[in-house]
Automatic annotation (TrEMBL):
It comes from Sporolactobacillus inulinus CASD. Residues 17-32 have a biased composition (Basic and acidic residues). GO terms for molecular function: DNA binding; metal ion binding. CDD domains: CsoR-like_DUF156. GO terms for biological process: negative regulation of DNA-templated transcription. It comes from the Bacteria. Residues 1-32 are annotated as: Disordered. This is Transcriptional regulator.
C-alpha cells in the first residue's frame, strides 16, 4: 500500500488542491484592486486577439514575436502585482494569526512557477 501523499503543482497534497478553486483571500480584495486587475487582464486579452489577427493576416514572424513578448511581460506584471498583494496581506495576516509557516510554504511553492 502506497502511503506517500500525491502532490499537485502548487505543492499541496491532492486533497487540499481540489479546494483551491473554492478558496478566498484571507484579506478580501477591494473593488479598486479587482477593477485594476480586471482592466489589465482585458488589455492582455485584446493583445492576444491582436496576435491572433496577425497570424491570420500572415504577418512577419518578428512582429508577432515582439507582441508575444509584450503579452508575457504584461502577464508577468499582473502576476507580480497579485503576488505582492498576497504577501503583504494574506501571508502577513496568517503570520499575525500564528499559522504563517503554512502560508509561507505555499508562497514559496508558487514562486517556483514564476521562473
Amino acid at each position: 500500500m502506497d502511503l506517500e501523499k500525491k502532490h499537485c503543482s502548487c505543492g499541496s497534497n491532492e486533497s487540499a488542491c481540489a479546494e483551491h478553486s473554492e478558496r478566498t483571500p484571507r484579506v478580501p480584495r477591494t473593488s479598486d484592486e479587482k477593477h485594476k486587475i480586471i482592466n489589465r487582464l482585458r488589455r492582455v486579452e485584446g493583445q492576444v486577439r491582436g496576435v491572433e489577427k496577425m497570424i491570420e493576416d500572415d504577418r512577419y514572424c518578428v512582429d508577432v514575436l515582439i507582441q508575444l513578448s509584450a503579452i508575457q511581460a504584461a502577464l508577468r506584471k499582473i502576476g507580480y502585482s497579485v503576488l505582492e498583494r498576497h504577501t503583504k496581506s494574506c501571508v502577513a495576516k496568517a503570520i499575525e494569526e500564528g499559522h504563517g509557516d503554512e502560508q509561507i510554504n505555499e508562497l514559496l511553492n508558487v514562486l517556483k512557477h514564476f521562473q
